[in-house]
Amino acid sequence: MSGIRDILSFPKVYQLWQAPFAQHKFKPLLKHTDFSNIRRVLDVGCGPGTNAQFFQGREYLGLDINPRYIENATRRFTASHGATCEFRLQDVREYHPSEADRSDFILLNSFLHHIDDDNSDKILSRLQHILSDEGHIHILDLVLPDSKGIPRTLAKFDRGKHPRPLDHWEKLFTKHFKPVIFEAFHLKRWGIPFWSMVYFKGQKQ
Q1: Which of 103, 105, 148, 175 has its C-alpha lying 20 to 30 A from 35's C-alpha?
Q2: What is the mean pLDDT of residues 170-193?
Q3: pTM of this prediction?
């Protein structure tokens, strides 16, 4: 599986892999979000800019530690975004915006299952300080189901080494943020569940 993980670090390959599921994955977030009220977006683990399309005309900052992803995203989206749009090579734990520059919409899309519990705690703790008082954090991530089947197998062999059971995700998220929505869902192809996912919307405690 290490070969697949290496291949997916290339932006074009990653985009092709994600394309069939990108819109479906965002459905819970789109359902529970009033985009007209969004002022400043922080996309943590932004990859090659896959999520930027949903925030046209909004102030947007994407952070990632993969230079290939940042270079590709900058080339594809910065000029056409319609508002201030930046992709930055940076670890979010080292991101310290001023109070005036805090984000009212923080997104983590399929990011934390690449991160162990200790560092996930550190990241979420940092994001408490980056989120504006009236803002929300939105997390979409991979669930490791208890029962056998395609979703559990795919989670076990995913590039990210830390998919978690649903109750584990809930404890991790609510340790740092007050829950607004915690919702499980499936990503399907041809009517078949391939991945078990969770959507969390939270606010400051």
Answers
A1: 175
A2: 94
A3: 0.88
